[in-house]
Design goal:
By secondary structure, the chain is an alpha+beta fold. The protein is built from 14 helices and 17 strands. Helix 11 runs parallel beside helix 12. It binds adenosine-5'-diphosphate. The site of adenosine-5'-diphosphate (ADP) has 21 residues, from helix 12 and helix 14.
Length: 584
Amino acid sequence: MRMKSLKWRMVTIYVLLVLIVMIACGTMIVTQISSNAYREIENSLKKSISTSMEAIGESSTKEEAITKWENAIKEYRDSERKLFLLDTNGKVIYADKIVRETYLTPMVMAAIDDKTMKEFDKVYEKNKDDDKEYLGYARPIKVNDEVVAVIYMLAPSWQVKVNLYSTIKIIILAIFFAIILSIAFGFMFSNFLTKPIIALSNKARDMSEGDLDNPMEVLSDDEIGELTKNFNIMAKELNHNITEISSEKNKLETVFAHMTDGILVFDTEGLLIHSNPATRKLIGLTNKNTFLEIFGDYLDTTYDRLLTHIKGGIRQHIIRIKEKYVNLCFAPYLDQNENIMGSICVIQDITKHKKLEEMQKEFVANVSHELRTPLTTIKSYAETLINGALDDREITVDFLNVINHESDRMTALVQDLLELSRLDNKQTKFRMQSINLSHIVEGSINKFQIHAKKKHQTMVYNSTENDYKIIGDANRIEQVIKNIISNAVKYSNEGDSITINVFEESDYVVVMIEDTGMGIPNEDLTRIFDRFYRVDKARSRAMGGTGLGLAIAKEIMDYHGGHINVTSEIGVGTCFYLYFPYEG
Ligand code: ADP
């Protein structure tokens, strides 16, 4: 047990208190007893001498007085007291028992001078066993008012001391017992007081370890009971607050864990203290734990500089990590006293946004480029005509044909662009109805047979059934099929063959258009559906292509709930598959 514990302190105080009280009482008792005993002896001495003096009476001469007193001493019989007749020099004239020859004590000297003294003599007579204490009382014997002798009486007072010692012994014994009792009671008393305090302290420790659910039993109605009650209220409140805080924390953690934006939290030194899963996906954090390790290669700033900058508000940086563009948004986080505790970085993936931006720029550049070429041609031919070529009819007709052709190209381009724009804005009206896909395919093939024949190409149509029904806009679907067939004719050489097939696959009706033409390189396959994308720009332009046909076809197929696929091998041929949801 700790010596500094409250229990031990209380026991010590209790014992000390009892000790002090006992010692004070004992001392008072001892002094009182001893002074009473001495006063009693003194009174008895005074009384005996006064009685003797009265009995002897006045004497006329010194000799008479001495004789009278000698006789009185002779008659005096007391085994313990001693009576002496002394001359004015303190010499013993007569005594019942002679021990010393002179007694020149203060009391005797005062009597010789006829003075009275309050304090009695304390005389020690040597004995066989030990020094024995006597109280001495002296009175002058006067003849005609002159001191002729001194009567001196000694009464034993040593018994007083003996009695005192035994009283002191009893008192010491009592003190000893009182201490033992006070220790015992002190323990009981302090146990009674400290037990609830220890229980409270244990409970507080349990609380610090997280046990807030079990309230303490209130055992008494006093201050300790009140303290226990308040303690229970405090635990309940604490429990409530902790539950609320942890539920808030859980909510935040769930938000952090599931949000698509990345979150990084740095302390004041730039050490990473928190990151969410999205961050790892966005920028990858393997073995990176500091601001410098994570952003050192991308940002031209130190962490300290960043902290001073974000004091004034949020700071944004757009960086490129491999293929991704990310927007970093740094903000400070503060404590209650508005001191910066570190920074929070929100990371947003803006790759799509950036790509869209780039696509838009590219689109505008493409449109301008596509329009500029025919416009330049038209302008130069028109200028040549104005400058004199008009006179030559043949040249004029040729030039006007070129101008007409270029205008057609521009019209086609503008029409395609308008169409795409309408499709993008969902402004195109589709007349959806049940249609016979086989008929549309056959009709389209017929329209392109002449073109194929011109290039000595064979165009073959195979279909097991002639009645594939789908829901769609007949004109739009025909537009798609015609575009694919026209591409097959355009991008195949003389003598190549084109095979068209319609069949059923899973829940789709598939229109397959296969050619043995030039094919498309593998790396371009995914991009041919992009706007203005052409494998061979010069060839496409020469064929009157705009580079928008497949992009429009894809949009129309998407609208019909279908899709478009392509397989191709360079030099071998290309095969387009149009998948339409099958109506039955
Ligand atoms: P274009 O107006 O240039 O024909 P498209 O969007 O219809 O534009 O086609 C995009 C590009 O895809 C074409 O420029 C061409 O390079 C390529 N392409 C389309 N169909 C075929 C095919 N059957 N064989 C080879 N290349 C093709």
